[in-house]
């Protein structure tokens, strides 16, 4: 009976410890370094409003921008990391993201922008987005 197994050409199995450092940058270049951070969200709703919770750790409150246009919600932020090195230090690996992140999504109903509210606490942005009341329909009289 034959045994079939998969071979990963980038695996470190069988590579002596001395040479693993040479191949590590090739393996991780697309995995973490230079990869844009993303905003993860949870959206819940009740009869009156939507509640959005967005994870944005390490972002200053004044660097967050939220825009609402009808049922479209856009969240953007500027993420800054302190890159100052002390005398004699050098960077061995940098995985923490610096730059801009954004996320936009649509909701099933339009949002009442005037009544919407936002708060930011412990790295979580919370948006309370009241649903816009449906306009009363009226019948047009034809003359």
From TrEMBL:
InterPro entries, per the entry: A-crystallin/Hsp20_dom (IPR002068), HSP20-like_chaperone (IPR008978), Small_HSP (IPR031107)
Signal sequence region: none
All copies of domain SHSP, residue ranges: 32-143
Coiled coil spans: none
Keywords: Stress response
One Pfam family this sequence matches: HSP20
Segments traversing the membrane: none
Entry's family note: Belongs to the small heat shock protein (HSP20) family.
PANTHER family, A to Z: HEAT-SHOCK PROTEIN 20 FAMILY MEMBER
This protein's name: Heat shock protein Hsp20
Annotated organism of origin: Paraburkholderia tropica
């Amino acid at each position: 009976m034959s045994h079939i197994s998969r071979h990963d050409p980038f695996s470190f199995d069988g590579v002596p410890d001395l040479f693993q450092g040479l191949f590590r940058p090739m393996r991780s270049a697309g995995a973490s370094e230079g990869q844009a951070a993303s905003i993860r969200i949870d959206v819940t709703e009740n009869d009156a409003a939507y509640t959005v919770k967005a994870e944005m750790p390490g972002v200053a409150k004044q660097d967050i921008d939220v825009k609402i246009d009808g049922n479209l919600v856009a969240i953007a932020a500027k993420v800054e990391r302190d890159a100052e090195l002390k005398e004699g230090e050098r960077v061995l690996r940098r995985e923490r993201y610096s730059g801009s992140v954004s996320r936009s999504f649509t909701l099933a109903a339009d949002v009442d922008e005037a009544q919407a509210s936002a708060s930011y606490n412990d790295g979580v942005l919370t948006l309370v987005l009241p649903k816009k009341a449906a306009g009363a329909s009226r019948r047009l009289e034809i003359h």
